[in-house]
Amino acid sequence: MKVTLISTVKNCAGAAEAFLASLAAQTRAPEEVVIVDGGSSDGTAEAYGRGERVCVLVEARANISRGRNVALAAATHDVIAATDADCVLDPGWLEAIVAPIEAGADVSMGWYEPVLDTSFERWMAAVNLPLDPAEVDPARFDPSARSVAFRRAAIEAVGGYPEWLAIGEDMWVDRRWREAAMDMRFAPEAIVRWRLRSGLAETWSQYFGYARGDGLAGMHPDRHALRFGVYAGLAGALASGRTWPRALAAAGAVAYARTPVRRGWARARTPRERAFATVAVPALMAFTDAAKMAGYAAGLAERRRSRSPGA
């Protein structure tokens, strides 16, 4: 099968060298690469255009969905592999991500691992990211567009990427694929590496944006309702002044944080960092949950005002 690799990028000139080097090192090379630049101001298009067989298109002011659709329109092959152009691909990534498609799947769901250089990055990874693919249920896994492959017919069947949705577009497509009963197979050996946000302000903005996208698109309502319910119950228990509600709330909090804290311990580099993870990971969980609740509420409000196409 001939494969087109697509990606979007904006103001990431500094990431081009590592991405292109990882692309050149693939055990199976794509027949073509189409990267859409959303209108960078730092020379991104020129930096990525130095790659072999790389076509860079500039679509000023395009959001990620629009960029992906532009790349799909320019792609000449019927098997599409997608990633983000600020990532680093494992040498066997393309070979592994395409294998399920060659075996008959409609969609191949790859894996992704964060680059963890600092304690903060390791604690943040513990909050939401599994330690390894063994934690994943393939039947419920929603692949990120940083590591996925699909047949052209699969993306056309759901109308392409939703250009009215600026963030969370890959999750929206995943939901449509599940609803259409697409053959979606997990490819844990198809690994992409990327960097987490480096500070609290960027992290808040990221998770606020993800949840806002969920609200706009009407995605994961049960998950968000549960989060609001948990924190409302915790606040009520603490405000009650009674011992048993507080004890129950404490037990619930321990259960809620148990898996992320275990991940924090596993990723810790030193005993001191492991000890700090016991406090830092739950604190960061509460921080990101607050961002998600604020973002989801904002998204719901915008959804009601605009009556978006995803309603």
Question: What is the top-level CATH class of the largest domain?
Answer: Alpha Beta
- CATH level-four homologous superfamily name of the largest domain: Spore Coat Polysaccharide Biosynthesis Protein SpsA, Chain A
Q: Largest beta sheet: what is the strand line-up?
A: 3-2-1-4-7-6-8-5
- The class by helix and strand makeup works out as alpha/beta
Q: What is the makeup of the main sheet?
A: 8 strands, mixed
Shape: globular
Quick summary of this structure?
The protein has 311 residues and is α/β, with parallel strands linked by helices. It is built from eleven helices and eight strands.
Commentary on this structure:
The protein is an alpha/beta fold and 311 residues long. The chain has 2 domains: 3-195, Spore Coat Polysaccharide Biosynthesis Protein SpsA, Chain A (Alpha-Beta Complex), CATH 3.90.550.10; 200-306, no CATH class. It is built from 11 helices and 8 strands. It has an 8-stranded mixed β-sheet. α2 (44-48) links the parallel β2 (32-37) and β3. α5 (119-128) packs across α11, α8 (200-217) packs parallel to α11 and α9 (221-240) crosses α10. The chain is globular and about 65 Å long. The two termini are 37 Å apart. The relative contact order is 0.13.
Please give a handful of descriptors for the protein shown.
single chain; 311 residues; alpha/beta; Spore Coat Polysaccharide Biosynthesis Protein SpsA, Chain A; 2 domains; eight-stranded mixed sheet; 8 strands; 52% helix
